Amino acid sequence: MSMTHTVAARDRSLKRRIRVGSIGLSARMFLVLLMAAATALAVFIWTRQSLTLDEAQSIWQTSRDLPGLFNVIAKDVHVPLFFIGLHYWEIAFGTTELALRSFSLVFFLVSIPAIFVLAKEAYSERVAYFTAFITAISPFLNWYGSDARMYSMMFLFTILSHLFYIRLWRRPSATTWFGYTVVTFLGLFTHLFFLFVIFTQAVYFLVKRKIFPPDAMRKLAVIGVSAGAATGAWFVYRHIAGAGLTNPVLAQPSSVDFFNVFSNFFIGFQTDPVNTFYLSLWPLVVFVGFTFLARRRPHQPETSYFMAASFIPILLAFVVSMTVEPIFLSRYLIISLPSIYILAVYFLSSYRPAISDLLLSILSISMLSMLVVQAIEPLSPVKEDFRDAAGFVSASATPSDLFVVSAPFITYPVEYYYHGAARLSTFPEWDRYLPNAQIQPFSLNDLAQTTQSWQQVYERVFFLLGYDQGYNEKIRLFMDEHYQRVFTQTFSPGLTLYVYKLRYP
Amino acid sequence: MPSKTEFLIGSPRRLLLFCSLVMGFVYLIILTFYFPHGTEWLFWLLIAGEIFHTWQAAIYIHTVWRLDYRATFDASLAPWVDVFITVAGEPVDIVEATAVAARDMEYPNHRVYILNDGLVAKRDNWRDVVDLARRLGIGCITRTVPGGAKAGNINNALAETARQGFASPYIVVFDADHIPHTDFLKKTVGYFVDPKMGFVQTPQYYKNSNNNAVTISSWEQQELFFGPICRGRNRFSCATMCGTNMVISRRALGEVGGMCTESIAEDFATGMFMHEKGWKSLYVPEVLAEGLAPEDFLSYTKQQFRWARGGLDVLFRYGLLFRRGLSFKQKLQYISAVSYFFSGAVVVLDICLPLIFFYFGLVPVRINTMLLALVFIPYMFLTIAVLTETSNERFSFRALSFSMSSFTIHIQALWSAMTGQKVGFSVTEKKGLRGNFIKLTAPHIIYIVLVIVGVAVAIFREGVSASVINNAAWCVFNIGMFIPYILASAPESAVKRYMSRVYLMIFQPEKAIAAKLKVAGTPESATHG
Fold first, then answer.
1. Contact between B395 and A296 using a beta-carbon 8 Å cutoff
2. N or C: which end of chain B has fewer CB within 10 A?
3. CB B381 to CB A289 under 8 A?
4. What average pLDDT score do residues A246-260 get?
5. Cβ distance of A277 and B469 shorter than 8 Å
6. B371 to chain A, minimum CA–CA distance in Å?
């Protein structure tokens, strides 16, 4: 009896060792180090930046009870999972910038070991180490890892989805199927772009059916139908709630926008000259393609899957944006990032050691240096310095002045920071608290009438123009023509304060 | 030893071929009609080059569209066959291995002859070859009157065997270094059950291809040709006659006046003449004989020049475009084969475009470079995918590098063919020549220098603009393509030594320092110290 017990205990211990041993001690230490470094960067740099428009909108949306939260989310373009999480996180930790952003940071930090496991599962430990490293130093991920939005959460769920999906053909088990099902639902309710992940997986399954277990078709169909039903239910609710009332207007993407996705992924958000420099090097991508694809080695199914997962969502989003409605934003396409990073490292690792070491070093140094530049460069295009803008107006404006923001959306971050004496308003006018409140379309006549009414009451107007919806320049030209501009300051790219004298006291 | 089967299998997905073809045309159309022109003459030169690329891609896809052609085969067919081993001074040990293997082929009715051209080629070992034949109990036909090089040698053997009254209906030709497998005849002769079959060709496999950079690249180029291209041409009964490892109908050869002696690519021209007379041909995708690749850079260069010049002769001397007898599809295949040798001129055009921008600020099209990238990158990646898939993953970067870098050879061949210069046939060396052949890559090295100076000139003119960066990236692309070729031309030991030193300095500096200290600590150095 005792002997049996000992053997069973030894077996359990061995199994545990194998399970835990799949990531060795040195790898675990390496991952902890990376996570610590990412945390330090987040705490000392990223979380200290001004809240962006989207983040402030998150606070506004989550600062209500659950039915109210569902209602405002349904009116917006997104799905509710992240906001539910953030709602309870705020209750627990408050709404300071650090507290808000640390919710996203958790997902980013967990993504580092997760992508290590995925890369190791698909390829090798060497690929896993480098992928985890470039994930931790990625300027793009560091930015969204400390952004109070759902992108780092979506990144993590995409990694897990890839992991379970690959295991569906490598080592299917009840746990794998369960994991895949759960992640599919979580992903779908994190961001609607997760549909592209599901679509890619469906296409890949149809093309490579033979590598999957025989019952995979039935199980995937069940998951697909139930996930579709759940998503459908959300869409019905959105429709009832008045979906899309607060949709921002996105521009149709250009060829530069298309490639900016890739430059954002690798070098983050840089000023135009730096970004142009990197984008202009695109012939080297073709060269690398020649050297890698012609390497006389058969491609694993994981490689073709990652290629599909990298490019299908980007191409689909681009095509939809060109033909139906613009939806092309690099942050939405974060679902392509895990596979792109893994493929990049895998490609570069497959050369002879000397060349591979050199190329991986170049990649790492480039990304690291761009991370530093992104951190210290005030003109980085993604930075939105509402804090300084609102602070400046708080200090300068008096009760006889008016503070107007346009586009109206930017009232979210402005009101977070603004504590001044002048009244805060938007143009076009927008009362978010009215049921089915919609932003009025811009018209010059309205602007003329509104400014006349302002003139009766206020001496100066502080016009903060940002997040251009196509009429900021028209506002500036009108105001310049009719009123005396007394002050101008740009706080961050695309965010400028104009002060006009409306009348003399 | 490289795989003997992998390059001969695989069938491409037609959807991929179709997408690649469509993308190629889309790219060409957008480039031609959508983008605003820059300097007009540069624009049209660029378009001419792109039309050439599209033509090559299209004809390649047409060729490999189906690779599953099967010809009728009768295993019981066993007519008499004369096996000719062409020799012109090759080392006797190499000839002996081939002759023994040919003699020992498992086939009831074959006679083996060494066609000894050593005497007319003024090689010292011609008597040794005669002795070898006597020792092995095989025939030896030694020419005393020169002319026609290898083709003349074969024609002489045809006449001699006929005169002796032993004219077999089929002949087999092996180069001196191509050792046949025992089943060579069993697996080829059966195809002559078709009375219109003119010749049957098998792959020209190089068993020494792992020896050095030249042999590796040389073989990897062959893999694409003897893999999908030759397999695809079977559909049009348009196999390429390669001069060795082939079985030919004596009657068919007689109808075209024997092997063509005027061209240095006698085999290619003879094959075409047979096709014109309505004879069929077949490529058997199985390695049935194993030969030697050129072992050194000079031999490789000479071989490539001979093939290029021979191919171009078919166009310029024999007027390929205006000849009658070939079917439309066969003519397309021949034009495709010959037009490959024009690629040197197109490569020069492509690599010079950035230089023209650097030095003169002229561009062929005025566009946002990212717009071009949006069309060009998918086109290129689809092309790479097609090459990779049709070659069953055997297509290599080195092969591409050597093909592109051979532009110097192709231009030289094109010039000599257009001006009708007389070029003698030279046998590819069977043993490697030692030496430094870097001067053969002087144009590539000069290009690198021109790029470096050009980038400086352009930066001086307009600063670090997007155009300068983009053109510099294209130059890095081109130089990256040339590097394997340039390295192959340098003595291998020197290249290896230098590369390992650079690697140590970058990645393991402590080892590099230790190695230096060790050298410094040797008694000799200590004495000098």
1. yes
2. C
3. yes
4. 81
5. yes
6. 5
Residue of A nearest to B2 (CA): A296
Domain range enclosing B500: 492-528
Measured CA to CA, the distance from residue A259 to residue A280 in angstroms comes to: 10
* Contact call for residues B287 and B4 (beta carbons, < 8 A): yes
Asked if B473's CB is within 8 angstroms of A294's CB, the reply is: no
In SS3 terms, A95-163 reads as CCHHHHHHHHHHHHHHHHHHHHHHHHHHCCHHHHHHHHHHHHHCHHHHHHHCCCCCHHHHHHHHHHHHH
Residues B360 and B461: their CA atoms lie apart, in Å, by 10
pLDDT at A365: 95
Query: What are B137-147's pLDDT values in tens digits?
Result: 999 999 988 88
Q: CA-based diameter of chain B, in Å?
A: 82
Cα–Cα distance, B486 to B492 (Å, whole number): 11
Give chain B's contact residues with A (Cβ, < 8 Å): 220, 368-371, 373-374, 376-377, 380-381, 384-385, 387-388, 393-397, 399-400, 464, 466-467, 469-470, 473-474, 476-477, 480-481, 499, 503, 506-507
Residue B11: inside a domain, yes or no? no
Q: Say if the Cβ atoms of B384 and A285 lie within 8 Å.
A: no
pLDDT (mean) for B297-311: 89
CA distance B377 to chain A (A): 7
Contact A306, B498 (CB under 8 A): no
Query: What is the DSSP secondary-structure string of A259-309?
Result: HHHHHHHHH-S--HHHHHHHHTTTHHHHHHHHHHHTBS-PPPHHHHHHHHH
Structural domains in chain B (count): 1
- Residue B107 located in a structural domain: no
The two structure tokens encoding residue B228: 């999908």
Q: Where are the domains of chain A?
A: 25-376, 386-501
Q: Between vectors from CA B16 to CA B12 and to CA B20, what angle results, nearest 5°?
A: 120
Q: Do A289 and B477 touch (CB under 8 A)?
A: no
Residue pLDDT, tens place only, A431-471:
777 766 677 788 999 999 999 999 999 999 999 999 888 89
Please give the pLDDT value at position A244: 60
The complex scores an ipTM of 0.82
Q: A141 to each of A138, A187, A331, A336, B151, how far by Cα in Å?
A: 5, 18, 10, 12, 68
Inter-chain CB proximity A293 and B476 less than 8 Å: no
Contact predicate B202/B246, CB 8 Å: yes
Gap between the Cα atoms of A106 and A103, Å rounded = 6
Q: Distance between CA B362 and CA B354 in Å, rounded? A: 9
Q: Is residue B511 part of a domain?
A: yes
The alpha carbon of B492 is separated from its chain's Cα centroid by a whole number of angstroms, namely 22
Would you call B48 helix, strand, or coil by DSSP?
helix
Instruction: With CA atoms as reference, report the closest residue to A335 among A137, A192, A202, A497.
Output: A192
Distances (CA, A) of A186 to A160, A181, A194: 10, 9, 9
SS3 sequence of B114-178? EEECCCCCCCCCHHHHHHHHHHHCCEEEECCCCCCHHHHHHHHHHHHHHHCCCCCCEEEEEECCC
Distance from CA of B295 to the nearest CA of A (A): 22
The pLDDT, as a whole number, for residue A83 is: 95
Give the pTM.
0.83
Distance (Å) from the alpha carbon of B469 to chain A's nearest alpha carbon: 6
From B186, B169, B223, select the one nearest B7 (Cα to Cα): B223
Which chain B residues contact residue A258 at CB under 8 A?
370, 374
Residue with tokens 């939005």: A149
Q: Do B503 and A354 touch (CB under 8 A)?
A: yes
Identify the contact set of chain A against chain B, taking CB-CB distances under 8 A.
254-256, 258-259, 276-277, 279-287, 289-291, 293-299, 354, 357-358
In a domain, B513, yes or no: yes
Task: Express each pLDDT in B149-168 by its tens digit.
Answer: 899 999 999 999 999 888 89
